[in-house]
């Protein structure tokens, strides 16, 4: 019974943590981020341009010298540099707000077939004037708790310039109901390196397939856009009731990021507990039987 009590207490603490106030202002989630005040709130967002494969991804500043994005942006060969555009609502417009990368670091375990470990870090050097135009997006160093007894849901927002149902090159945001459990991705089995989410209102929310954009909960980034999944759907360009947005769970990569970015946290509280604890490996039915026997 003590084991069950501790487990329930751990779950309750996770829920209570979601009620804590945000550390930074959260972007209002609208279909199209075209207003000046909105882009100022999202001044951490950038578009990543790789001229070697013509891909455009989303990224965001986690430090004034570092942008986090998806490794997918650099598929197709050895990439030495890319261009970063910032402070824009439409990446196709000409702008003076751009900077070239100094170095690019792709996660060493990235798999371009499964999109596992789909992360990349871009080092940049901004002038003093440019540095004043951007913001740094803080990471949630508490994180989600891998669920056993409850399927916790969080209201979050995804931002990105990716391919979308409006067929434009604008910065978009989508309201998402986010989960962190084995069944979070519908017909696709989820593991502890991913978060999965569904549109809060599929009929009104824009559908977009982005790579590298942030998933923001309570004003803090918790994930990086990884892949758009469809269950039993013929047209992958259209989102439906069984479409799932998958994100690399940022907590799983704190140590890797910290190895390059000194200002970034080196560990996430709940992911550290998850890695060191064995309770998550015990089936729920076994937990119930233990309780009955005691």
Automatic annotation (TrEMBL):
Q: Which UniProt keywords apply?
A: Disulfide bond, Hydrolase, Protease, Serine protease, Signal
Statement: the UniProt record of this protein carries the keyword Oxidoreductase: no
Q: Name one Pfam family in it.
A: Trypsin
Tell me which Gene Ontology terms the entry assigns under biological process: proteolysis
Q: Which residues form the Peptidase S1 domain?
A: 19-262
**Gene Ontology molecular function terms on file:** serine-type endopeptidase activity
Signal sequence span per UniProt? 1-17
> Record's InterPro entries?
Peptidase_S1, Peptidase_S1_PA, Peptidase_S1_PA_chymotrypsin, Peptidase_S1A, Trypsin_dom
* Family according to the record: Belongs to the peptidase S1 family.
Q: Which PANTHER family match?
A: FI18310P1-RELATED (PTHR24276:SF98), POLYSERASE-RELATED (PTHR24276)
Q: What is the name of the protein in this document?
A: Putative trypsin-like serine protease
Which species is the source of this protein?
Answer: Panstrongylus lignarius
**Species lineage:** Eukaryota, Metazoa, Ecdysozoa, Arthropoda, Hexapoda
């Amino acid at each position: 019974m003590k084991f069950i009590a501790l487990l329930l207490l751990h779950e309750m603490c996770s829920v209570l943590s979601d009620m804590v106030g945000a550390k930074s202002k959260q972007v209002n989630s609208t279909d199209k981020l075209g207003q000046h005040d909105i882009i100022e709130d999202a001044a951490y967002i950038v578009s990543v341009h790789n001229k070697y494969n013509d891909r455009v991804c989303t990224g965001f500043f986690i430090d004034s010298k570092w942008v986090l994005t998806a490794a997918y942006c650099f598929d197709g060969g050895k990439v030495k540099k890319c261009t970063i555009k910032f402070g824009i609502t439409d990446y196709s417009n000409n702008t003076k707000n751009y900077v070239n990368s100094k170095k690019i670091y792709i996660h060493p375990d990235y798999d371009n077939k499964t999109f596992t470990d789909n992360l990349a870090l871009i080092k940049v050097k901004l002038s003093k004037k440019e540095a004043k135009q951007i913001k740094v997006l803080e990471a949630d160093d508490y994180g989600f708790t891998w669920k056993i007894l409850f399927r916790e849901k969080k209201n979050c927002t995804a931002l990105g310039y990716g391919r979308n149902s409006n067929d434009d090159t604008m910065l978009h945001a989508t309201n998402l109901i986010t989960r962190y459990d084995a069944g979070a991705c519908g017909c696709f089995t989820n593991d502890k390196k991913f978060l999965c989410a569904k549109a809060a209102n599929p009929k009104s929310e824009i559908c977009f397939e982005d790579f590298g954009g942030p998933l923001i909960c309570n004003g803090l980034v918790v994930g990086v856009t990884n892949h758009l999944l469809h269950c039993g759907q013929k047209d992958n360009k259209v989102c439906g009731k069984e479409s799932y947005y998958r994100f690399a769970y940022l907590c799983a990569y704190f140590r890797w990021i910290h190895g390059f970015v000194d200002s970034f946290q080196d560990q996430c509280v709940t992911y550290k507990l998850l890695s060191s604890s064995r309770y998550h490996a015990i089936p729920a039915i076994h937990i119930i039987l233990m309780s009955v026997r005691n």
